[in-house]
């Protein structure tokens, strides 16, 4: 005789025990902890991207000054220099350090790009950015406030672009000297170019003057134009004539010429 198992066929016999539900405040704490961890990680990544590595400023400036010395040509000398930096969108606004130099021939900026984020910089010479602006080129360099007045710097403007150089408080005085030296050199070059142009420029034609003339018998407008070395069109315009017809005794305006050269 078959025995009957009372647990067989029971829906509760095979089901797992019910899961314990977390309380709402526990779920909130877990969510906040996860968000805080993500925000903290993002903040660390952003700080690593924005804040330069220890010693990067000093290394970049030393390399930039050595490059400036190698860039100077014969009879070229440094008039003023100032440490400066740049933040370019192509570098994800990370700061690159360098030096702005005013020589007796040009304005020069040499800077080291920031350390790559995804790979370490390879051993070897530091890669440098060199920008040269001869004084005979069209540009201005002026002290200004940058980034909505949060920092000070030098703004270089050319017909094609604008370049901003960030200057810290310790280098502000020398940055002003660079700006003043650049402006003085630009004025001197412009003055010399104007003087040279004045000596080589062809003399301007003297302003043409006109005198009154009374028409005599037998004279025509074409004949008078030939006599006074002009054209009938000019005489018509000068005297507001609709045609070439003129009369004896009529007063006309004609170009002034030497009496000795009149036919």
Structure notes:
By secondary structure, the chain is an alpha+beta fold. It folds into two domains: 56-117 and 125-198, PH-domain like, CATH 2.30.29; 210-261, LysM domain (Membrane-bound Lytic Murein Transglycosylase D, Chain A, Roll), CATH 3.10.350. Helix content is 35%, strand content 24%. The protein starts with 10 loop residues before the first helix and ends in an 8-residue tail after the last strand.
Short summary of the structure?
A 4-stranded antiparallel β-sheet has the order 1-2-3-4. The protein has a 3-stranded antiparallel β-sheet with strand order 5-6-7, covered by helices on one side. The chain has a two-stranded antiparallel ribbon with strand order 8-9.
Pick out its properties:
263 residues, alpha+beta, PH-domain like, 2 domains, four-stranded antiparallel β-sheet, three-stranded antiparallel β-sheet, 9 strands, 35% helix
- Distance between termini? 159 Å
Tell me the β content: 15-25%
User: Using only CA atoms, what is the Rg?
Assistant: 42 Å
The strand order across the widest sheet is: 1-2-3-4
Kindly provide the name of the CATH class of the largest domain: Mainly Beta
Give me the secondary-structure category: alpha+beta
The helical percent reads: 25-40%
CATH arch. level architecture of the largest domain:
Roll
CATH topology of the largest domain: PH-domain like
| Number of distinct beta strands | 9
| Major pleated sheet | 4 strands, antiparallel
- Average pLDDT figure: 79
When the domains are counted, the total is 2
Taking pLDDT < 50 over at least 5 consecutive residues as the criterion, the unreliable ranges are: none
| Quaternary status | single chain
Discrete helix count? 6
CATH homologous superfamily title of the largest domain: Pleckstrin-homology domain (PH domain)/Phosphotyrosine-binding domain (PTB)
Global geometry: elongated
Secondary-structure element series: HHHEEEEEEEHEHHE
């Amino acid at each position: 005789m078959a025995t009957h198992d009372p647990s067989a066929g029971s829906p509760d016999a095979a089901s797992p025990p019910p899961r314990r539900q977390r309380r709402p405040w526990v779920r909130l704490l877990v969510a906040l902890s996860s968000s805080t961890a993500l925000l903290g990680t993002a903040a660390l990544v952003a700080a690593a991207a924005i804040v330069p590595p220890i010693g990067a400023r000093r290394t970049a400036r030393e390399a930039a000054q050595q490059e400036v010395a190698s860039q100077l040509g014969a009879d070229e000398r440094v008039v003023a220099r100032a440490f400066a930096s740049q933040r370019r969108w192509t570098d994800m606004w990370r700061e690159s350090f360098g030096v702005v130099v005013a020589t007796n021939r040009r304005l020069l900026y040499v800077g080291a790009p920031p350390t790559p984020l995804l790979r370490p910089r390879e051993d070897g010479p530091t890669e440098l950015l060199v920008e040269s602006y001869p004084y005979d080129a069209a540009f201005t360099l002026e002290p200004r406030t940058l980034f909505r007045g949060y920092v000070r710097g030098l703004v270089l403007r050319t017909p094609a672009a604008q370049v901003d150089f960030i200057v810290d408080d310790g280098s502000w005085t020398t940055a002003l000297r660079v700006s003043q030296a650049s402006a003085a050199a630009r004025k001197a070059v412009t003055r010399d170019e104007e003087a040279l142009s004045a000596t080589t420029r062809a003399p301007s034609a003297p302003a043409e003057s006109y005198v009154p003339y009374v028409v005599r018998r037998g004279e025509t407008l074409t004949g008078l134009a030939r006599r006074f070395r002009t054209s009938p069109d000019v005489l018509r315009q000068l005297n507001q004539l609709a045609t070439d017809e003129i009369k004896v005794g009529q007063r006309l305006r004609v170009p002034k010429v030497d009496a000795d050269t009149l036919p």
